[in-house]
Amino acid sequence: MQQNSMQHVQQGLLDQDEMDKVLVLSDADRAALNAQASRGLLLALAAQGAMGLAAAVIAGVVGGAAAGWSALAGAGAYFIPNALFALRLVVSVRAGRANPFTFLSGELIKLFATALLLWMLSHVAQDTLVWPAALLGLILTLKGYLLLLMFRKLS
Fold this sequence. Notes:
Elements: H1 2-11, H2 16-21, H3 27-63, H4 65-95, H5 100-124, H6 131-142, H7 145-150
Helix pairs in contact: 3-4, 3-6, 4-5, 4-6
């Protein structure tokens, strides 16, 4: 849209009101936005990790060691693919190659990887897995951004 608007400005096709709405970013502005986006991704990732560990501790205290390990495994089933996806996005942003396709394909791969890890978890640890604890770990890790909202680090 911005590139299209810039072409219209250059061709003289926009009136004064539309030209006032066109946002032109300098290289310094782009770098600042990229740094802010990378920081936000890494903060969200850290919050999800903290919530996953909290779920493991809570489940371990309430349900014993098997529940604690199950919660940690459930948290890891989401956290590991999400961490890889977030790091991929950070690299794309810093290299200036971030685009909607990168995000969409990464999101789909992350969801399939999470489902695959949960499936593998159910088959590998079927005798020792405590499903309520694993789901607690998964859900708390999914909702890790609430930790940031609680401390007003995410707008």
